[in-house]
């Protein structure tokens, strides 16, 4: 069997979802399912009486929010721009110093 033909069943809120995945990604998929299930449980406790669609919508929103926060933590573009500016300043300084 090829790695990409590995079949697992992920349970989300008690429902099983069969997935064909790459074998090396199994732990990532199971961890993601665990996070979703834990988030559903938290929202059920916080919003007792809300219907299932509200709980799922809030869960999806929370997971997406955490994803965007993680992306921002790894955004080094401003840092790279600052280093380029600093490099330009140093180059300009050295050019001026050579001209004196």
Question: Keywords for this structure?
Answer:
100 residues; alpha+beta; two-stranded antiparallel sheet; 3 helices; cell division; Cell division protein ZapA; Cell_div_ZapA-like; Cell_div_ZapA-like_sf; cell cycle
In short:
With 100 residues, this protein is of the alpha+beta class. The protein contains three helices and two strands; from the N terminus they run ββααα.
Query: Major β-sheet, in short?
Result: 2 strands, antiparallel
Low-pLDDT residue intervals, each spanning 5 or more residues = none
The 3D shape can be described as elongated
Tell me the distance between the termini. 71 Å
Helix share bin: 55-70%
The share of residues in extended strands comes to 5-15%
Can you count the helices? 3
Tell me the strand order in the biggest sheet: 1-2
Q: Nearest-angstrom radius of gyration?
A: 24 Å
Arithmetic mean of pLDDT: 87
Overall SS class: alpha+beta
Please specify the SSE layout and strand pairing.
Layout: E1 6-12, E2 15-21, H1 26-46, H2 52-73, H3 77-99
Antiparallel strand pairs: 1-2
GO biological process, one term: cell division
InterPro entries: Cell_div_ZapA-like, Cell_div_ZapA-like_sf
Protein name: Cell division protein ZapA
Written account of the structure:
The chain is an alpha+beta fold and 100 residues long. It has one domain. The chain is built from 3 helices and 2 strands; from the N terminus they run ββααα. The mean pLDDT is 87.
């Amino acid at each position: 069997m090829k790695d990409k033909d590995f079949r697992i069943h992920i349970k989300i809120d008690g429902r099983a979802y069969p997935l064909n995945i790459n074998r090396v990604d199994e732990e990532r998929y199971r961890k993601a399912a665990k996070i979703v299930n834990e988030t559903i449980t938290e929202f059920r406790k916080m919003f007792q009486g809300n219907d299932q669609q509200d709980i799922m919508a809030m869960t999806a929103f929370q997971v997406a929010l955490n994803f965007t926060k993680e992306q921002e933590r790894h955004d080094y573009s401003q840092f790279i721009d600052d280093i380029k500016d600093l490099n330009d300043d140093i180059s300009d300084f050295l050019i001026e110093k050579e001209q004196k």
